[in-house]
Amino acid sequence: MRSNLPRLLTAILLLSLLTGCWDRRELNDRLFELASGVDRLEDGKLLLIGQFMVPSTSEEGGGAKKPYLIETGVGKMVSECLLDMQLKLSRRITRGHRNNIYFGEDMAKAGIADLMDSVTRDPDSRLKSDIWVVKGGTALEFMQLSYPLESIPAIGLSKIRHIIGKTTGNSLLEILVEENVEGSGPTLPAVEILYDTKLRKKTLQVYGRAIFNRDQQLAGYLNRMESVYRLWITGETDRIPITADLPNGRGSFNTEVTLLHAKTRTAVNAGRVAIDVYLTGSGVILESQPAIDLRKPDHLREFEDIMNRRIEKDQTEVIRKVQRQFKVDVFHFGKALDRQHPQDWARLKAHWEQSFSDAEVTVHSRVKIKRIGLQGPPPNKP
Amino acid sequence: MIPSRNPVSYPRETIGAHLSENEAMLRQLFEHCFDVVFQRVDLSEECLILMVYVDGLIDKNVFASPLFQSWVAEKAGAGGKGAVDYPVLKEHFAVVRPIRNESRVQEIVESVLRAELAVFVDGEPEAILLETSGMEHRGVEEPANEVAIRGPRESFTETLQINTSLVRRRIQTPHLKLEPVVLGTFSKTRIVIAYVEGEARPDLIGLVKQRLAGIQLDVVLESGYIEELIEDRTFSPFPQMMNTERPDIVTASLMEGRIAIMTDGTPQVLILPITFWTAFQAVEDYYERFIYATLIRWTRFVLFAISLYLPSLYVAITTFHPQLLPTNFLQNITSAREGVPFPGVIEALLMEFLFEGLREAGVRLPKAVGSAVSIVGALVIGEAAVKAGIVSAPMVIIVSLTGIASFAIPRYNMSIPFRILRFPLLLSSGALGLFGIAMGTLLILTHMARLESFGVPYLSPIAPFQPDQIKDVLIRAPRRKINSLKATLAGRPRRR
Amino acid sequence: MKLTNYQLFWLLFSMEAGMTIMLTLGPTFQAARQGAPLAMLLAGAVSLLATYIAAKLSLLYPEDTFVEYVPKIIGQWLGKTLVFVYLLLWIAVGGIVLREYADFVHMALFDKTPLWAIILFMLIVILYAVHGGIHIVARCSEIIGPIVVFNIILFRIFSLKDLHLDRLLPLLPSDGWMPVLSGSAPAASYMSESVMIVMLIAFIGNKKKTLSSGLWGVGFAAIVLLNVIIDTMMMLGSTVPAMLQYPVYSISQYISVMEFVQNLDIFLVVGMSFTVFVKIGLYLFMTSYGTAQLFGIRNWRRVLWAVSMLVLAVALFPRNADETQVVFPLFWKNIVFPIFLFAVPFLLWMIGSARKRMKRPVRPHA
C-alpha cells in the first residue's frame, strides 16, 4: 500500500493541472491579423494599422459585411501602438497569420532599423513574412484599398507575388540577412497605389524593389524591369521578359528567358574593382513583329545577338543606376569578392560602398533562343 | 483465495446397497430440480433398476438401443441378485459409449449433472455411469464479429468439443496439446489449454497453468472471467490477451508459439501472449498478397492515430495554436465556430460522449431499432445541432472521422483502450495544448513500455528491438521471407 | 534491468540530440560565425573522444557501475567523495535541463501557464518511466529515437527549397581557427554529457559491441547536429542565428510547404519534449540508483522520490532564462567539461588500467 500514495498524489496533481486552462483561447476570442502597416506621423510617432479577418457568421451573409476590418493604433513604439489598438478591439490580436507588413514611404525614408526588432522578437509573429514599401503613399492608404478578387487584400498581394515567380514570405528574412552582411544593400519589394484613369478605380500594383542604404533608410526604387535584372544576378528569379528592337525600325520582338543563371567574376586591379557578370539562359520567342522567318538559323542568330546586346545594355544601366544613385551593393558583388579574393575583401570591406560605386562592371550575356513558337514569320507578313 | 461459498454437503460418502435408500438420498439432493429424472424400471417385484439423468442433457436414444434393453431385461430376469454384470454391458456398449462404475456419491451427482446416465441396481453398492451426452448445440456458423472477405467462414461455437475439433482439424500432429482444466465450483466449466509442443515456450505454458490454478471462481460463463484473473495488470486500459472466434486465428497463433485458452460455453477463445502490434494484424493480412497487406496495415496505423489523436489535436490547434492552420482554412473554421456557445474542449467532449452513446445504443438495441437510432442520431447531431448553431460543423466532421477510424482496428478489444484514452488526451489538450498531448503521449508510451503480457514486453519487437521478428509488425513481409524467418527461429527458446 | 546495445545507441542519441540542437546553435554561431559547421564537427569529435574514454574506463569493470568501481580504483574515501560530487553534478544538470526545457516550452507555446506546471507535468511523466527501471526508459527511447530521426529527415526535405548554397561559403572564417575552437566548446560541453555511460554500461547484457554502439549513438547525434547547423546556415547565413536565442526554432517557423504545412515550430517543441524526456529520465535514474548504491540503500526507487524533489528544486531555483542559459552553461563549459567530463575519467582510466595491468588483486577497501 505504501507505493500507492505517490500514485494517488500524482493522479491528484495531474487532475489539478488539467483544471487550469491558463492559455486556452477560443478561435472566436481571437482576431487574426493578416497584414499590418506602419506609417510615420508628423510628430515622429508611429501609426500602426492592422488588417484583421472578420469571420462571416453562418451562411446568410451574402456579402453585406466586409470580411475584414482595419484598425489603427498610435504610439512611440510598435508595442505601444499595439496596445492602443487592442483597446479598441473586443478580441485578442493574434499575429500568427500575418504574412504582409507595409511600410509607408515616409516611414521607409526615416529608416526602418528600429522596426525590425518588433517583428522578430515576438514568438507569435512569424519569420515568414513579406515586408513591402508603399511607393509614393502611406500604408494606411494602401490598406484601405479594397481588392475584389480575394476576400482580404493582403492575401491578394501574396498571391501576386507568387504568380510573378517570387518566393512568398522571404523578404523579411532576406533583409535580415542582407542587413547583417557587410557591404550589402538591403532591399524590400515595393508596391504602389495606382489610379487607373480609364477604368476610374484605384488598384494596387507591384512596382519593383525599394533599395535601402546601409543606415536602413530608403534610398530609391528600381522599377519592375530593373528589379528583375537585379534578381537575375542574385539568382532569385526564374524568368524575365526581354523586348528588343531590330535596327533601322524593322520592328521589335519579345523573348521570355527562363533557366536564368548568372556568374560573377571579380578582380582587383590596383585598388579598382573589376566585375564581370556572365548571364546565361534559354529564350522562347513570344512575339515577333518583323517579317523575318525565324526558321532560318541565320535570322535566329541575329535575333539572339540583338537580344543579348539589349540585355547587356539594360543590365549595365541598372547596375550603373545603383552605383550612381544608391551607392549600395544590392547585387551580392561583395560576397563574390569575399569568396574569390578574401584578402582583397578584408581590405576593401570597410569602405565597400565607395569601391562598389567606382567598380568597373562588364556584363556578358549569352542567352540562347531555344524555341520560336508555332510559326516562322508572322502569319500575315510573308 | 476465497473459499467457494455454499459447498454442497453430501449426507454420506458412498452409496449403499439398498436402492430405495439411495433413491431417497438422491431425491433429497435433487429436491426442486424438476429436470432431474428418476426413472424406475420395475420389471419384477424384487429387482429394481433406477436410472437418474438430467432431462435434455442426455441422448435418449440410449434407451431405445437393443443392447441396453436386452441388458435391462437380463438384469431383471436374474432376479436382481449377484454382481452387476458389467462385462456384458461393457463388451457391447463400451464400443459406442464410455462406461464405468462408481460408488462415491459426489462423483455420481456430478456425473449426472455433467450429462451422464446413472443406473442403480438394487443390492449393488455401485452405480453404472454411462456417458450419453446428447445436448442440443449450435452448429458451426460464419463468424459474426470478425468478418474477413477472404478466408475460412467457420467460427467457434459454445461447445468445447466442436471448438477443439476445429483446431485439431487444422493442426494434425500429436504436438498439438489440449490440456483440460475444470474451473468454477458451481459451473464446473471445462477449459482447454491449447499449445503446440516445441513451439510454445515451456516456461510460458507453466506460467499459464500456474495462473489458472490460482483461480477460484464459482461460475465461468465467458472467457472474460478467466482473462481478468490471469492477466498481468488489471489496472491498464490495454488488453493483454486477444480473443477471437475464428479457428484460423487460433491455429496461426498456436503455430507462432502462442497459447490458446478455450472455454466451454463461449465461442471466444483467448490467445496469449500478445503485443501492442497484434492490434494491427488482421487475418486477411495473411490471406491477401503482401503489398496490399502492408499498405492496408499502414492505413490502419494512420487510422489508429486519427482515432486516438484527432479530437485532441483539433482542440489543441484551434484553442492554443491557431497559427498551425493555413489562412484559408482558418477563415472557414472561425466562421463555422462563430456563435457556438461551448468552448472547444467542452464541445469535443460532448460530441465524443454522444458518439459513444450512439454506438452503445446501436449495439444494445434490437437490430430493427438500431438503424432507426443511427438515423436519428445522424440527423439530430449532424444536421439540427449544426443548423441551430449549438455545435460547429467541423467538430461533427472530426467526431465522425474519429468514429470511423476507430472501427478500422481489426481487433475489437484492442480498439477499446484508444477509445478510453481519447478522453484523457482531450482533457490534457484542452488544458495545455499540444504540450498536453505530447505529455499524454509520453505517459501512454511509458505505460505500454512498462506493460508485459505473460513476460513478453508489450511493445516488442520494436522496443525492446528484436530485428529477427520485425518482419510482421510494421510491414507484412512476403511469405517467403516470413517462412525463412520461421526456419531460422526453429528450436530457439525465446520466440513467439 | 538489462539493456541491449541497440538501446544504448538510441538512449545516447535521444539524450544528445534534443537540447543540444536547441540550445547550442546560437552560442556556436556567436563564436565561430562562418566557421560554425567546422566548430560543430570539432565538437562532435571531442564528444566522441570523451565517450570513448568513459566507455573504456567502465569496461575495465564491466559489471560495476561508476559508483562501485571508482572506490576500487582510487580508494574508498576519495572514490566515494568523487562519486558524490558527480552525483551532485548530475542532479544539478538534470534540474537545469528541465528548467531550460520548460523555459523554451513556455516561450514557444504559453503565455499565462505557470512555469512550475510545465516542469511538474514533465517530471511526473518522467518519474513514471524511471520508476519502472532504466530498461523502460530505454524501451521508450527505442520508439522515440526513430521518430525524432524521421522528423529531422522530414524537416530536411521541407527546407530544401529555402536553402542557399552560397551562404555556406567560406567554411573557415577570415580570422582563422581560434573562433572555430571557441565555437566548438558549447556544443562539445553539451555533447560530452555522454560520459554518463559510466553508469549505464553495467546494465548492458552483451558488452562485446558496447563501445561501438555508444560511439555510434554519440556520432549519429553529432551528424544530425552538423546537418542542422548547415541547414541553419544555408537558410539564415551566419550572422542572423548568432542573434537568435533558438535559431532552429526560427527556422522551423520559416519552413512552409505548399502554404499548407507551415509553422512547424510546435512540432519541434513536441520532438524536444520526447528527447528531454529520455535525457532527464537517464539523469534521474543514474543519480537515484547511484545514490542508493553509494549509501547502501537497497531500494533505489525510494531514493528516486528524494532525487526528483531535488531536481525539481534545482529547476525552480533560477530566476530567469539568463541564469539557466548563460550562467550554468558557462560553469558547465569552463569547469565541468574539462575537469569532470575529460580529466577525471581519463585519469581514472589510466590508473584503473595500470592497476589491472599490474595484476594486483583488487582489494575491497583500498
UniProtKB/TrEMBL annotation, chain A:
One of its GO terms (biological process) is spore germination. It is a lipid-anchor. Gene3D superfamilies: Nutrient germinant receptor protein C, domain 3. GO terms for cellular component: membrane. The keyword Cytoplasm does not apply. Pfam families: Spore_GerAC (PF05504), Spore_GerAC_N (PF25198). Residues 23-193 form the Spore germination protein N-terminal domain. It comes from the Bacteria. Residues 208-373 form the Spore germination GerAC-like C-terminal domain. This is Ger(X)C family spore germination protein. Belongs to the GerABKC lipoprotein family.
TrEMBL record, chain B:
It comes from the Bacteria. One of its GO terms (biological process) is spore germination. One of its GO terms (cellular component) is membrane. The keyword Iron-sulfur does not apply. The chain crosses the membrane at residues 301-320, 388-409, 421-445. The keyword DNA-binding does not apply. Keywords: Membrane, Transmembrane, Transmembrane helix. Belongs to the GerABKA family. This is Spore germination protein. It comes from Paenibacillus sacheonensis.
Automatic annotation (TrEMBL), chain C:
InterPro entries: Spore_GerAB. It is a multi-pass membrane protein. It is found in: Membrane. NCBIfam families: 2A0309 (TIGR00912). This is GerAB/ArcD/ProY family transporter. It comes from the Bacteria. The chain crosses the membrane at residues 7-26, 38-61, 82-102, 114-131, 143-160, 180-203, 215-236, 266-287, 299-318, 330-351.
